[in-house]
Structure formats: structure tokens, C-alpha cells
Amino acid sequence: MSALPADRYAGRPRQDSGRSEPAAGPRPVTRLDPSDLGVPGARLGSRATLVQISTAFCAPCRAARAVLGRVAEQADGVVHLDVDVTGHEDVAERLGVTSTPTILVLDADGGLVARRTGVPRLADVRALLDTIPQRGSAPRPPTGATPS
């Protein structure tokens, strides 16, 4: 039996190998440094960083940019980074981004707290940030949760 073309059947086992091997893909991202994003001079927020992965032609990205920018302006220690992956598909691939906008929420150390796609709701972003402590303080429970 002949081999299947790799570009046409990525991720499927090759028929001539006699064994099943998944296609290599990006490792799940759990921590990011600004240099991973390809944004010169970028820095993490002292509390959180809202990373928006966008493309130039993405209409929902404009709405996401407005929401995340507003949150970053109003919340202490929160930075919004807009990463345009148009022409930088290697960044999108490394981060496992398959649609835009994709939002990555990082803590002060660059640890991935949440990952969402689509336009976020202002209230949802604020509620998520409420669970991320300022450096040196304990995390706050989500709204409606009772301390144990």
C-alpha cells in the first residue's frame, strides 16, 4: 500500500508504516514570556496580562480589543497586549491558535490562567480578574462563592 501524502492527511497514521503515530503538534502552553509573543518591548502586568491574538482582517477582534482595552485601563496592574499574527503564523502555531480572536489571560508570572476564543463579555473578564490576586495577596473567591 502506498503512503498517504502528509500535507493532505496531517494527523492520520501513515498506511505504509504498520503503526499509528500522531502528527507532532504544538505543546500546550502553560507559561508565556513577552518574548514568546513577538511583541518588542512588551511586558507583563503586575497582576495580569490580557493577551489578544488577532489578525488584520478579523472584525470580531476590534470588539475584543475595545473590551480588553477598557478592562486594562480600569484595573490596577492589568496590561492588554494585542498580538497581530498576520504574517507571523509561527507565533499562532506555537500558541495553538486556530481562530481569532483568541484571548490568553496570564498571571503576573506569565502563567496561563484562562484561554478563550471569541469576543469576551466585559463582566466575564472582570470576574476572571477578580480570581487573580495582586502579588503578595491571597486569591479572592469567585463572586457568589463562600469561603471554606
UniProtKB/TrEMBL annotation:
Gene3D superfamilies per the record? Answer: Glutaredoxin (3.40.30.10)
| Membrane-spanning intervals of the chain | none
Question: Where do Basic and acidic residues bias regions lie?
Answer: 9-19
Record SUPFAM superfamilies = Thioredoxin-like
Region annotation (Disordered) maps to 1-38
List, alphabetically, the CDD domains matched: TRX_family
In terms of PROSITE patterns, this protein maps to: THIOREDOXIN_2
Which Pfam families has this protein been placed in? Thioredoxin
- Please name the InterPro entries in this protein's record: Thioredoxin-like_sf, Thioredoxin_domain
Ranges where the Thioredoxin domain occurs: 1-134
Q: What is this protein called?
A: Thioredoxin family protein
* Protein source organism: Georgenia faecalis
